[in-house]
Amino acid sequence: MDSDADEVRATLVRNGYNTAVEKIRATEYPQLQDITYLDHAGTTLYASSLVQKVADDLVSNLYGNPHSQSPSSQLTSKRIKDIRLRVLQLFNVSPADYDIVFCTNATAGMKLVLEAYTAQVGAFQYCYHKDCHTSAVGIRELSGDTKCFLRDEEVEQWLEGGSTTDEVESKTRGLFVYPAQSNLSGRRLPQSWARKVRNSGRKFYTLLDAAALVTTAPLDLALMEPDFTVVSFYKMFGYPDLGALIVRKSSPGMLEFLENRRYFGGGTVAAVTSQGDAFHAKRSGVPHEHLEDGTLSFHSIIALDIAMTVHKDLYGDFSRISRHATSLVMHLQQQLAKLEHYNGRRVCTLYSESFPSTTDESTVDEWLRHQGPTVAFNMRREDGAWVGYSEVEKLAAVKRIHIRTGGLCNPGGVESYIGLNAWEIKQNYEAGHRCWDDQDVMRGKPTGAIRVSLGAMSTIDDVENLISFIDEFYVERERSTLQKELVRGDWGGKATAVVESITIYPIKSCGGYKIPAGITWEIKPHGLAWDREWCLVHLGTGSALNQKQYNKMALIRPSLAMEDGVLTVSCVGSPASINISLASSELDALQSSASRVCGDKINALTYSAPEIIEFFSAAIGVPCTLARFPASLASKRHFKPHLATPQSGDTELCAAKQPPILLSNESPILLINRTSVDHLNEEIKISGGKAAKVDVFRANIVIAETGPKRIAYSEDTWKHLQIGKEFIKLLGPCRRCHMICIDQQTAIQDEEPYVTLSKTRRIGGRVLFGQHAMHLPVKSRLSRPGIKVGDLVRVLGFEPKTLESGD
Ligand SMILES: *Cc1c(COP(=O)(O)O)cnc(C)c1O
């Protein structure tokens, strides 16, 4: 084993792995302790000494706003002049031919170019490569003719076609945009296109999106000669958050072209009047003087200077970084490609070119030309079905592995690599899929991908951690004896159980309130009385907060005093408590406001009393307040079968018949079986993990089987239950996420039970535990329906005659 590791290491070192990085990691990146960070294409990370040196510089110098004559202002101006030169030199060009325009990020740089384009007479032609980032694709909305090149050969053909007479005679100039490296797959595109466009005689400028490339590779503008280049510096150094547009000012017609831009702002105008004929004269000269509107991000530009120095001291130049990261990605890709299930089926489908596994110098060079240190992929189960990327991301998060998944801001990449047609994407959108949500597999195809990207400070351990993670959780060693399918058992009418506990969660995502023994609790179509009647909403966004994001919500303890008509809320670790009236007459005093719960737009009634805002804001450390969502408003939200497993048969429930819910995520009632919790805990213990308390599953009803024959997960086969005198319909299994790792007593997050649940209960790509349920109102009832702890539970082999079916 060790000799294997030694061999891997030796190969990596031969390919350019920089072993010094391992020591740098320990001293410079304390924030990476126990974390596997694999999202350098999102942002690379800043070193401690960078932050320290920036702080030292800012406190030992007085920097003023650059547009004036005071010494502090002049100091800023001087620094910025030097830094402009330094950035151009970093990209191997000189101020004789190029100019740097500082802006917020790469996207802002593109929009600045777009402003000049839209100032032309007539609509402009826009051509872009399908590997473009979303920020480049959006340019087409302001253009005339748009063409998307799907393959490199199409670009070459277009270039060989040369200019048309129409084009030469036209006054408007076209724009061609392509990325130096795909942010989805890491593929590096040809470096020759900008020059070829110029030589073709076409009336086009080329904009090179170098944002992904510069993270780990040298950018040689002298070689590529694009007319415009955009970068984001946080992707190179982790800090500062700053971008640039680099203009090749020596390109034909460039200065006049940019001066056509109409807008001016503070700093880009030489003289201006507000009265009379509204005169203004633009500043002229180098492009940055008339393109940098408003005050420059001057502190960030100073930080950039320090970032360049620190980065070079730590890692050497970018070609060193490039070899280091490439050595790692070669290893990663080869390992992922090797993973197989017991039946010989490949686990990973990689969305990048494969390279030979020999590792001589020329192979490494070949990689450097064609591929950056990014791997995009999806995984398949042993039966060939896709593993949902959002399930992978959730489990990775529990294991402290940081990856990115989904559409990755690269529509063309998703379409081409995953093989999704435009109509399928539209159909998925119509079916409710949005960027960011967890509908990761739709109609048998992934809706996005998993992306792993490496950087200057990545190490062998990072890569090995990811490979072992996938190996442990996604490679099937043998036809599994573990339970991977819903249990099939014939329990009709025989299984008996009792209600062990009943819990309501008056405030969504906060602590539960256990119904005391002996009390019969009312049950309604939307669930148990007072369950999820309230929620906490962010004061800024109006969105409902959840415990997954704000773990401390577990510590908020509501309890109901029915005789006093109040909900009393306290918080663990604080002596304070508040009382909220249950009376519906109180509702009038509340303010109706638009809110969002689980993506649904709802109208909630928010509390504006300062003591309420203060109590909850202090309890979880975010500006928030309480909101009420009384039953009378409930009709707008319904059970969401699409969130459960496709096999659960929920689809039988047509939209109109779906039970109403208040603020619960998916269904009126959540029910779990003690036998299943115990079984899961045995499995956790076998792997040495920490057993889960039953409250992490946040069930409303926990039942405990009483018969001698108890089968874990038998609840998955039940359709109808009788609890006491009430009838309950089970709606299908509940899909779980890592929220079940939050200890409800301490709000501390652990790996379990999600890790073991992911291994033992991933069914149809979903991690399932417990059952969604609803109450069935039956005919001719005298009293109000209710259940209590200790009620007998019978599994019914028939569908009870309900009010609706009787009507
Ligand atoms: C990150 C990225 C962008 C967007 O950068 P912003 O900093 O968000 O403007 C654009 N293109 C590519 C290729 C990228 O990787």
UniProtKB/TrEMBL annotation:
PROSITE patterns recorded: MOSC
Cross-referenced Gene3D superfamilies: Aspartate Aminotransferase, domain 1, Type I PLP-dependent aspartate aminotransferase-like (Major domain)
Top-level taxonomic group: Eukaryota
Domain MOSC per the UniProt entry, residue ranges: 627-796
Keyword annotations of the record: Molybdenum cofactor biosynthesis, Pyridoxal phosphate, Transferase
Function: Sulfurates the molybdenum cofactor. Sulfation of molybdenum is essential for xanthine dehydrogenase (XDH) and aldehyde oxidase (ADO) enzymes in which molybdenum cofactor is liganded by 1 oxygen and 1 sulfur atom in active form.
Transferase in keyword set: yes
E.C. code: 2.8.1.9
Pfam families on file: Aminotran_5, MOSC, MOSC_N
Modified residues (N6-(pyridoxal phosphate)lysine): K235
Organism: Terfezia boudieri ATCC MYA-4762
Protein name: Molybdenum cofactor sulfurase
Cofactors: pyridoxal 5'-phosphate
Catalysed reaction equations from the record: Mo-molybdopterin + L-cysteine + AH2 = thio-Mo-molybdopterin + L-alanine + A + H2O
